[in-house]
Amino acid sequence: MAKLTGPLANKDTVSGSDPLHELLLKLRARDVLSEEEEQILRDSIGEIKELPRAKVIVKAGVTVSECTLLVEGFVCRYKDLSDGQRQLMELHVPGDFLDLHSFLLKQLEHNVGSMTPVRLVMTPHDKIRDITEKHPHLARMLWFSTLLDAAIHRERILSVGRRSALSRISHLFCELYVRLNVVGLTDGFSYRLPITQADIADASGLTAVHVNRMLKQLREMGLMSFRNNEVVIQDWNQLQRTGEFSDHYLYLERRPR
Amino acid sequence: MAKLTGPLANKDTVSGSDPLHELLLKLRARDVLSEEEEQILRDSIGEIKELPRAKVIVKAGVTVSECTLLVEGFVCRYKDLSDGQRQLMELHVPGDFLDLHSFLLKQLEHNVGSMTPVRLVMTPHDKIRDITEKHPHLARMLWFSTLLDAAIHRERILSVGRRSALSRISHLFCELYVRLNVVGLTDGFSYRLPITQADIADASGLTAVHVNRMLKQLREMGLMSFRNNEVVIQDWNQLQRTGEFSDHYLYLERRPR
DNA sequence: CGAGCGGTTGATCCTCCTCAACAAATGTGG
DNA sequence: CCACATTTGTTGAGGAGGATCAACCGCTCG
Hints:
Two copies of one chain form a homodimer. Chain A has about 260 residues and is α+β, with helices and mostly antiparallel strands. Helices cover about 40% and strands about 20% of the residues of chain A.
């Protein structure tokens, strides 16, 4: 593969032209979305924004009036502790709404930040409210997508609560593989993931040093490698087993909601 | 206080007669619920069920067609690991829907089980679907209540990921105090919590032995005690500080959704 | 009365953290 | 282009928080 150059060179397909491409893939992996509903979504979105990495996209406690859809790049939701520790709640991939829940919560209790340069699409709360008033099925699909976040949260609770360091990290890379695969951002058994080991640590409730050791072990076990911002999975079955990963919680059956 | 006798003697107010009492308190702490909407909820509920403790209420992977509202008792959502370990995702108090998300997910990826004898009210998915079709504001309030679960999940991720054992446990008891207070189930700075130390351990990602030691320490520090199924908080401010607890994530402002 | 569960305490072990040093990669200004 | 700073990754040594194993107590219930 040719070396990628620009900060947003993550994308090399024509899909880059449609900001809803990944969202539609994500939704249609779970339910039937009509042409009309697709159009309603298109009519709901507003301006496109670009941001460099390490910027706060939504700050905790600040009232917001629009939701943000991630089009390109990686984003995380996180909270900081008083002693400087940080915990990532969720790592977001293109096609994810970053703060759809802000529509009803009005303000978030956590921060949302870019981990890479990102491209975002804004959607006013008013438009989403209209959807809940006039298009109940589409509204249910949006509701569903917040339930998916909650299911991912629960799996994270299990990971940090009960799994070993090696298992946690394996699980995280498995999850990202499946989620990126749904939106067409994997290349065979590998995917780009331009984040640091410290980020992995904050996501898995470990220290960066220990993450480094576990990554080394995963490499030596021949399961996967994470180098140069790229994840390469060598033994998918064994990696899943090590992380006790099963994709049930990602609800990938297409069924009416 | 007189000794409570029966398995369901948790309740000593007249509210016991209205199965929606706690739910209405919970919803009205966050938004204005009209008389009409209250009536719609009343028309949506079906039979009342009672179950002993330690029963599975909803099993992972089984398709369900109704949601369950907890009226009385304590319930948890949990997952088991292959080696016999268990992690609680959330601990539910009266007024909580245990599986409102099953309405859209159709089946859950985790189990829901009773931790005490419980009283439940069933609500068919069809009724909830009707609400999303005809009563968008009420539907948003239901959506909101699933977002509240997600916010509680996120705080749990932070706890198990980054907080010390003492801090985690303090936080858990703070959260339960506030949530029980909203639905009128506290008595000053104490509340009934008829669960075991092993349950606390599974909720906080620790072992029962270590929970026991931390509870002892909290007692010796004069912050709180948990004995005979009763939590007594002696120093609320210091307990909050120890658990780094703030109730922001419970969204207790009443504002339109 | 014995069984079983929940709680308590001690001794020991081990995963993961902390601290520290250094290497490699990346970025910056001259 | 190089010199330099900064960030990220890597490795080692030592330490600590929590797990594990085990024994025992008290209570409840059949």
